[in-house]
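Reference record:
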Amino acid sequence: MSEIRSDLVLSESAFHAVINAPIERVDIAKWLFALPEAEYQRCAPPDHIAAGYTTTDDGQPMSINVEMIGTGLTIQHYVAETAGRDHCHMVSTSDVFTPNGPSKVQVIWDLSAKRTDDTHCEYTNSVIAHPTDEFLVFLKEHGVSFEQAAKERQAAGSDHNRRETPLYAASIERAALTTQPQS
């Protein structure tokens, strides 16, 4: 398995959106692990292609997402390191298929909500991508500098995150308002 280069950042972005529901009604983990594929696709058209849910061999929840980030078809295998009502921290060693061929990157997806008042909360969608050693070799083989790859990934990743964040917040809001309140 290729080593993750957590000392290097390919891209990093965080965007915020309002959820018009009380924090007590929000359950990000429940929403994420029951998100229908069509709803996932509505959260970043046309980038979001498919979604599925499974577990790792040791029973940790896993979200499988297929999406286009810029010119790369990305298959993400997000394992839940934290899966709670107001916070999910997901980590994936993702397969990326570019016009130059396949490679792997690590993507960390952090979804959180915090109370802003009795009837609203703020959703934050944060994504950080790190290269693997395999990805760095891939860049070298194709004559692409890390700086150029990071610049392109930053632009594509930020654009994608900017567009999906308010749509995720709206989807979480719909789920919050259609479930029974927690006592």
